[in-house]
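[scheduler] slot 2 assigned
[scheduler] job type: sequence-to-structure, two independent chains
[scheduler] chain ordering preserved from manifest
[runner] begin chain α
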Amino acid sequence: MTRETARGGPYQHLDGLPFALAVIRDSRIVHANPALLTLLGVEPAEVLGTPLVHLLEGREPQALPQETVWRTPRGALPVELTLSESGGDLYVLVRDASGRVCQRQLLQRLAALGASLIRLHSEDAVLRHAFQGLAELRIPHGYLVPEGERVRLAHVDVGGGAAPLVAPSGDWCDLLRDAWREGLAYQELPSGDGGVLGPDWAALAGPPTRGGGVPRALCLRIETDGAPRALLALRSERVGEDDLAPWRMFAAQVSAALDAARTIGTLWRRNTALSSLNRLAAAAATALKPQDLFEPGGREVASLMGSRTVILLLRAEGADALELAWHQGVSPGAEHRFQRIAHAGSMSARVMEEGVPRVVDVAEFADPVRSFLRASGQVCVVLVPLQVRSHMVGTIALAFDAPRVLTDLERETLQAMGAHFAATIETHRLLRELRERAEELTRLHSELADTQRQLVERERLAALGELSAVVAHEVRNPLGAIFNALATLRRFQEPASPALTLVGILSEEAHRLNRLVDDLLDFARPSSPQPQPVPLPPLLEEAVNTATVGQPGLRVEWALEPDVPPLPVDARMMRQVFLNLALNAVQAMPQGGTLRIHARRCQGQPGATVEFTDTGPGVPPGLHERLFEPFFTTKATGTGLGLAIVRRTLRAHGGNISIESPPAGGATFRVQLPLELPSMPSRPPPR
């Protein structure tokens, strides 16, 4: 470089940027151009002839520029020095580097912004943070989302704050197409009014730049899952062609942060859905009845989907209808609209046929459901079928006051929740049916056992009856001969003959044997009762008087309540029943005692109860049932058929007999008879 060329114009600008020039000879400044004087803020006389040591600070000439900081009246100034030597002169080229430092700081902050995005956990948070960072860097920007043949401006900030997220859409321009295809597009905007962006995107151009520089447009492609998603358009005079690599890196960081946030969001939603399913499964496992699942399960579904109105409808048994099982968010005055809904042709029926959750617009419902939903401000309803295998149990309806689209995860989760509901309801229904069938089988088994026992008893009694008939027939003829012989013997004996005592003993035993034959015949040939309404007092009085005649030490107490009506019984057979019971009580008190007769109406069931209570020694507990077995007796002279005939006669009348015998002594034989006829006047009890 020569002195002349150093003084002339060829060095006044380099690449369009002003520079300052000084020529140093013998360590003193011999030339300084106006740019250097302006940079230093001094007059020419103050510079020429002075040493430039404080500017060079011992630097040796070199071909490459060096960055340093000069102290000037304006303060510390970043500069770029280029030193060269020619003919003993040192040429100093000084360039203002403050813009480059600012640019480097801008790119550093941009890199920090991109690196900070990866820690955010939602896509909205990533975009908001990126937009806020660009606004703090004072870079006008817009976020454009392709929608078919148009592009929607989802966010814009040109220096006056963010615009509403819902903005008009526009056509594709060359810059946007290039960026969508190549990943990055760059172009100058000399006009400052949108230029190559086209009229639809003039808002991105913003106001003219303050520094008078040339504004440039940079468009970056944002990707998710390896596919283009949106475009980030930028406008700044500080964006140079040499700075495209950092901006491309920033676009990659935004894309990576969106991918990470999407993955985190998907995992979080899956975890939330899984947690809801686990809680629902736990509630279903501990539910003692389906109603125990309705409230916790319904609230779990509502919380997962963010719905305030939830209605659970179940199919009515034996009817083509849906019934309201549980609800949340339905006012008490509106419950009746959902208490019972016809199933055929309803939206629930359609969803049950499809077997998958679906979103239904309110307009698709029929009145009165449609009117209720509209009055409540709802715009759509998510219907979830409750299905287990091929059996449809019901539906869950979730109402929303804004349009709703089900994601695949939501659809899968709702279907699984519906399956839990359906399985619990169906399991309890099957358990109820199984329990009812088990109870029915138990009842049938008991009836069968009773029938078999009765059949065995009847066969045994029939065999005994046949044997008794044979024995009675074979014994009666010899008895007739014995009675005839005894009568003859009495005629031939003198009144004072000692043989008369023996004849009396024979006569007494013959009569006892004859009574046994009568009992055997009664037992062998039971007759069917011919019931007629008969008052109880006469039957009881006649039977008790017959049994107690000739018993001076016996006292009879009567407790016949007046509200006992006539009973539909066979009078002859029932008289024999009462006589046998009275005789049994008298025989239990050979030394005398008290016989109490108590008749009353049964409580809680139609019928009457008659009790025979004696003050004898009582009956051991182990013998209560055996007393009614044929031929079982505790008396030395008994036949063991009296009580067996009593029970058989009572059963023929639809009644029964039981025994109570306290440890202190005494026994009560309680007779229960059915009562079917209306009340009739009865005889007053005997005094």
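[runner] end chain α
[runner] begin chain β
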Amino acid sequence: MSPSTPLPAEKSSLTANRAEASRFTIGWPALAAPQAPREDHVIEQLGRTRNDEFAWMKFVPAVGTRTMENLPPRLRQHLQAERDYTQQLLQPLAAPAQDFYKAMMAYARSVVHAPAVASASPPAGWTYGVEPSATPGHKRFVRRHADGRVEALVDEAERAAGHAYYRAAEHQASPDERYFIWAEDVIGNDRHRICLLDTQTGATQELVPEDAFGYGGLVFSPSSQNVFWIWRDAHSRPSRLYRTPVTGGVAELVHEEHDPALFMKVARTAANGYVAVTLFGPDTSEVRLIAAGAECDSPRTLRERERGIRYEINEWNGCLIALTNVDGAIDRQILRMEVVGKPGEGLHASAAVEPLVPHRLGVPIIAMQPFASVLARLERVDGLHRLVLLRPDGHETVIAFSEPSYVLEMPLAQPWDATHVRISHQTLAQPPRWLNVRLSDGQITEVERESYSGLDSDRYLIERMHAVADDGERVPITVLSRKDLAGGQLQPLPLLLTGYGAYGIAYEPAFSLPALAWVDAGYCYAIAHVRGGSEKGYDWYQGGCREHKRNSMSDFLACAQHLQRMGYSTPAQTVSHGVSAGGLLVCGAANMRPDLWAGVIAQVPFVDMLNTMSDAGHPLVPLLRPDWGDPLADPDAYDAMAAISPYENVRDAAYPPVLCTAGLKDDRVPYWEPAKLLANIRRHSSSSAPALLLLNPDSGHQESDQPQSVLQQAAQLWAFAAHCIHTAAAVEKHTSR
């Protein structure tokens, strides 16, 4: 297909409809799919009525975590039938899945983990790092002394032994470097236990045995004598902050948050002057500070929460600084604040607020990291990252890179007295490399890079282009292909198009072994940076929220059509892929244009949108209403959701093959969302294409944290995608004769 070839028109004749319906029938085993019973479950809401005929699939145990064993018998039987059906349908793809897995693992031979970030004068002479465990697929945390000593801190292979699921987070040393702490989930439900190692005695204790929040949910106090940690309630909301002595004992309640629309995180400020408790939602935040030297006092509010105002606090150059959207700074500014009050007497910002970095529309500030001599910030210009170093005299040094698409990351909590800021740089085809940027002048030194045997990044072509959406917005696309195939210009290629578009989270074009394995097979991989993300700033995020959510889906369709129109692929060679809210994106787009896809892959997909957002007891619903709307109170929000929610909008059409993954223990996007969607697709689709539920009974919203688990699942999904494309192409060739 040449770039000027138009897309096929939508088929309307009876013959065309029959051809479309048969498009997906060749190449799949002739097996009967499980048929879920339909039962009336009429819901009256805001004067509107809907019938959720598959509502019976929802099961929340009174206590504990879901397992196959504690499911109601009928539901257990149905989900087991789904698992058996999917296994039988995917069994013929075992060999190609193994080929994709081998292609990924062929590179993963010499991985170097992020090197330690050194302080100019560490208190005890230690630097901390990560290395591969002796057991493949696991990490080992170590520290090295200036005199050459090496001490093992925690080996995740040992911690994971005997558990079907293991994922750890928030590894950190105490300020005095005696203790090392981390959070680990051995169940799969995102409820962590907190473990603490005393390096002097070598003893490890479970400081918090269960129900801790492991992501931004624990930190040592400035004195190293206490750990502040966050507890998850029965709804899995991080709602209480506790303080526990490192020696163990009774946990003291520090703060309890009663507003279910706010989440909580805790951290120390850069100069170790405060513990900052941040309460936040999509459009609200409040920071409470606990001063060093008064860490047993109650936290003091810096600025009362106010709808529409978000801020986060750190300290630099003798003052507190705020990264905030106050005064209409939608893409955020950095303010310097004087603080009135002493520890124990209450703190508040003075009226004198001085802008350090003014607001610039379309240039979002992503993060800031203060150092003794420089304030480093990561921001985005024209959708691309750059690092800026601000000195107290106002002079700035800008660090940017020349690739058409890349990712910069700046780890937070770097040593206050460091002489360099550590960043990582990567592209879709180039693994992360860690760079030291000298704070005094911006000079860059490469410290280390991930090394993959046999990888030649120069073999690949990375392109950045734009599709034009229905309303004229230019939607960025990042494309990865092999140079010898000239980005698909020699002939249309099988294409995997992925996207996210929610919560203001940018879909970063980071290095990906699955993406390389797909492209190595002679295919094309692309990311659609649709509205709802933050690639082009706050307005881009808001353009894919609430009543504008349809924009995310129409942007995704525009990206697919642009790539097809430009000759990169065809509808019969394009598979869509999305994770979580990205599953909402791709399944919503499939409802709008099922003819544009050879297949759809939705991992742990948020597809029962209207029913979930109508469940006030769901752990995330109150928090996320600013992103999606409130169908319990707002008729317009109800109607907007009802118009796009994938489950409710399955229609009578020839659907392509659809594969959804789910974790039985997932509380964020429960298994019944994709299960209900697939049941509805089977009911309405005029094709015999399979609709598959790949259910993991041992996982939650994420797979276990071993590379093999992640890559094995990716290989299975890629084998499904390739089979969808080959099947559709075979049918297209057959029907064209």
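[runner] end chain β
[qc] chain β: Residues 427 and 619 are 35 Å apart (CA to CA).
[scheduler] slot 2 released
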